[in-house]
Amino acid sequence: MALANKPRRYWRDPGPFVQFLQIPGAWGRFVGFWRVLVSAAYAFSNVENLSVAGAETENPRHNIPKAAKRVFWRIMVLYMVTIFCVGLVVRSDDKALTARSGDAGASPFAIAAINAGIKAVPSIINAVVVTSAWSAGNSAMLVGTRTLYGLALEGHAPKFFTKTNRFGVPWLSVSAVGSLMVLGFMTLSSGAAVVFSWFQDLVSAASFVHWINIELVYLRFYYGCRKQGISRDELPWKGPLQPYGAWLALVSFAVLLVTGGFYVFIDGHWSPQSFVSAYFNIPLILILYFGYKFWRGTKLVPLEEMPIRDFLEVARREPEDLPPSPGGWRRLNVLWG
Questions:
Q1: Span of 116-125, 175-184, 323-332 with lowest mean pLDDT
Q2: Handedness of CA 171, 177, 180, 181 (dihedral sign)
Q3: Which distant-in-sequence residues (6+ apart) come within 8 Å of 266 by Cβ?
Q4: Could you give the CA distance from residue 291 to residue 271 in angstroms, rounded to a whole number?
Q5: Does the pLDDT at position 212 exceed 90?
Q6: Rounded distance, CA 5 to CA 88, Å?
Q7: CA atoms lying within 13 Å on the CB side of residue 236
Q8: 230 DSSP assignment
Q9: Which residues touch 300 (CB under 8 Å, ≥6 apart)?
Q10: How many whole angstroms separate alpha carbon 49 and alpha carbon 55?
Q11: How far apart are CA 274 and CA 268, in angstroms?
């Protein structure tokens, strides 16, 4: 009965939101929510990279969209619903949430378990975090290496990154991407929490830049199809609510990127390190993009000249052998298959 009453009690006291930087009233609670919303991009970074494995995927025109939909449902069920449930049994102002202990003790999952009298959960969560970090590192190594190698093949990066060893591994690309892992040792210092905060802001801003680029590329593709009279029904797969969903996402990501470091402009909270980590990616992408355009003298391909029809013809000439649709309980493997 006491556990059942907690959600209602915590909704009133202390409430779902707390004041940020001691800013009073509803505004303080809103900016606290906004600060967390911007930082949450760190947890969702790289969810879009499943398409990188398309070249090694069987029936990619069928399996890549299926994998993308499964990622959406996994996030909704295994992440969002779980966080909602944990939020019902952990106070928003619980001091353990901000206790920088260096382990999983500040995890809301661990706090909920400890409050319920389950002492071993923090150690289990530590193990989960380590294995998850290792898996994420492997995925990032694959994506970074393939991206750098592909750029070099297309002439957009130094040619020496295409050099491979006798096993066909682009070892210079792997070495260049892997060399950045030494930055992880910065978290062993006494200011590990501060360093992690910088990395979190950098990754969050980089994710927004990445997602903005994806939306811009998709919108050019969408309007290129319209310009060339290509119906979306001719595509192997089409997403719903377009182009409105893409425009909404583009504007949302842009606003989150621009306001990501708002807290450094609050009186008395200026920090050059936090400012750089929040906004470094904006001038970086602009310098890289327009610098490349100026250096190589390239221009945007007009919508009517985009080779969309050529790729559709390839898809028609090379149909995929689709597996039968699963039935019964097998349809639930959307969460783990």
A1: 323-332
A2: negative
A3: 21, 23
A4: 29
A5: yes
A6: 10
A7: 21
A8: -
A9: none
A10: 13
A11: 13
Q: Give kind and range of the element (H or E) at residue 219.
A: helix 192-227
Residue 282: φ, ψ to 5°: -70, -55
* Contact (Cβ atoms closer than 8 angstroms) between residue 91 and residue 7: no
Q: Is 288 helix (H, G, I), strand (E, B) or coil?
A: helix
Encoded amino acid at 19, one letter:
Q
Task: For tokens 């609050």, name the residue.
Answer: 266
Residues 223, 206, 284: CA angle, nearest 5 degrees? 90
Give Rg (Cα) of the chain. 23
Rounded distance between C-alpha atoms, residue 94 and residue 40, angstroms:
19
What is the chain's mean pLDDT, rounded? 81
Burial 69-87 (b: 16+ CB within 10 A, else e): ebeeeeeeeeeeeeeeebb
HEC-encoded secondary structure of 116-148:
CCCCCHHHHHHHHHHHHHHHHHHHHHHHHHHHH
Q: Which two tokens stand for residue 160?
A: 């020496």
What pLDDT digit, counting tens, does each position of 62-117 carry? 778 888 888 888 777 777 788 787 777 888 777 777 765 555 556 777 787 777 77
Q: 9-13, 37-41, 135-139, 215-219 — which one is most confidently predicted on average?
A: 215-219
Name the amino acid, one letter, at 11: W
- Rounded CA-CA distance 60/217 in Å is 20
Structure tokens at 213: 């680029």
- The H-assigned helical ranges of 228-323 are 244-258, 272-279, 281-296, 308-317
pLDDT value for 1: 45
pTM for this model (two decimals): 0.80
The more confident residue out of 313 and 268 is 313
Give me the residue label for tokens 């499943």: 50
Residue 263 has pLDDT above 50, yes or no: yes
